[in-house]
Write a structure and sequence with these properties.
GO terms for molecular function: identical protein binding; pyridoxal phosphate binding; transaminase activity. The protein is mostly helical. It has 6 helices and 3 strands, in the order H-E-E-E-H-H-H-H-H. It folds into 2 domains: about 60 residues, Aspartate Aminotransferase, domain 1, CATH 3.90.1150.10; about 50 residues, no CATH class. A 3-stranded antiparallel beta sheet has the order 1-2-3, with no helix packed on it.
């Protein structure tokens, strides 16, 4: 048994999440296995981002192949895989261009900024309001928590933009 426990989270991590007691150490498909080998169905994998499962052989192969070529480059450089994907997305959708980001919060923040820019350019400076659902969650950046409307994410960070 590992000396890493749920208490380790409380000791070393910022408390912006509240994970359960289970600490997964391995995954296969839609299943997770904890430190004792107990099996769980992963119902939260990728939270609203992806549902790839764990350790699928074709994904491991693709990641290994890419990892042997190029790990990561800053967005100040173009790279072939991103350009190939961007081309495929524009050909398969309504979009003329795509925007890649690191997280849902960053993507939402960009969408909100682009909406405000579009409204300002098209309708004038007085069109700057964003309409959102109460208690929605759009990310943890200052802009997205302001739009999201959940007091527990906004409390203590004022004054907020808006």
């Amino acid at each position: 048994m590992s000396d890493i426990t749920r208490a380790s989270f409380d000791q070393y991590m910022m408390p912006n999440y509240a994970p359960v007691e289970v600490i997964p150490v391995r995954g296969e498909g839609s299943r997770l296995f904890d430190q004792t080998g107990r099996e769980y169905v992963d119902l939260a994998g990728g939270i609203a981002v992806n549902a790839l499962g764990h350790a699928h052989p074709k994904l491991v192969e693709a990641l290994t192949e890419q990892g042997q070529k190029l790990w990561h480059v800053s967005n100040i450089l173009a790279n072939e895989p991103a350009l190939v994907l961007a081309k495929q997305l524009t050909e398969a959708t309504f979009a003329d261009r795509v925007f890649f980001s690191n997280s849902g919060g960053e993507a939402n923040e960009a969408a909100l900024k682009l909406a405000r820019r579009y409204a300002r350019n098209r309708y004038g400076e007085d069109k700057d309001e964003i309409i959102a659902f109460e208690d929605a969650f759009h990310g943890r950046s200052l802009f997205t928590v302001t739009v999201g409307g959940q007091p527990n994410y906004k409390s203590g960070f004022g004054p907020l933009p808006g």
